Amino acid sequence: MVIFIPEYTKRWQEKLCLCHLHIQNMTLKNRKSNNSNYGKSFNFPPFMQYIQRWQAAIATMLKNKSSVYLFFYNLIETVGWSYILYLLVIHFTFATDGSLYESIKTPLFIFQNAAVLEIFHAVFRLVPSSPSVTIQQVFSRVMLVCGVLMLSRDAQLGIGLPLILAAWSVTEIIRYGYYTLNLVNAVPQFLLWLRYTLFIGLYPLGVTGELLCIYAACMEFRRNNYGVVTLPNYLNVTFNYPYLLMFLMALYIPLFPPLYMHMFGQRKKVLGKTSTTKVSTRVSKKVK
């Protein structure tokens, strides 16, 4: 599929060039006939400039194999989380048979565990993300999906599951959608704002849901003595899975605030830079 994209892009570039020449000729003829502003430089309409910019970004991306890989990875993740959000809405909008977890467990397992690849993206510098922050974010979710939801019936039926699905799906649709469009230099301003604003409410909502799921699983495992290895045994070790879950819950106290504040720092840097650029552009236009 990737092999035919450059030729496809080239054909569209040729068509757009012809369109540009036609518009330019028509504009120059009108200026000659009206004898007004003749001789001034021709400016293409804004939408044409956007198309030119996107084409240049796509052509640049296609020359880099890692960029092509990241584009399709983020696009697939965007579609996957959109499907999960769709299943969530359908479950609470219409009467459906079975539990919420039964309807979303397969896509949730696939698309959440696919996020493990982001650790390698950060380690091998395919993206500018911090490996430590990425590991923290990915591990907590994979642990919740594979180590809590897949094992605990109480966590599957509790209020925590719809909370995390709502928070995760909206966050990931915006995040992966932003990454996808950013690779072709086509990020709209509203998506940039959503990317660095909605986390203010979605992150605490997601953490609340995660803690509720872990707590429900912990209580169920303690009640059923699940995941407990006592002495004596062949390996001469002892293990208590409910205690491990309680330890993971305690880790949210020191780990979540720095991560949350890190996003506020990113928001200030990105949105502050955008607003500053807009103000400087307006000032320069007034000066002209």
What attributes does this structure have?
78% helix; mainly alpha; 11 helices; two-stranded antiparallel sheet; disordered N terminus; disordered C terminus; single chain; 288 residues
* Number of H/I helices: 11
Please trace the helix and strand order, writing H or E for each element.
Answer: HHHHHHHHHHEEH
**Biggest sheet layout:** 2 strands, antiparallel
Low-confidence residue ranges? 1-5, 34-42, 279-288
The count of strands amounts to 2
Distance between the termini: 47 Å
Classification by helices and strands: mainly alpha
Strand line-up in the sheet with most strands: 1-2
Question: Approximately how much helix is present in the residues?
Answer: over 70%
Mean pLDDT: 83
- Estimate what percentage of residues fall within beta strands: under 5%
* Form type: elongated
* Rg from Cα: 26 Å
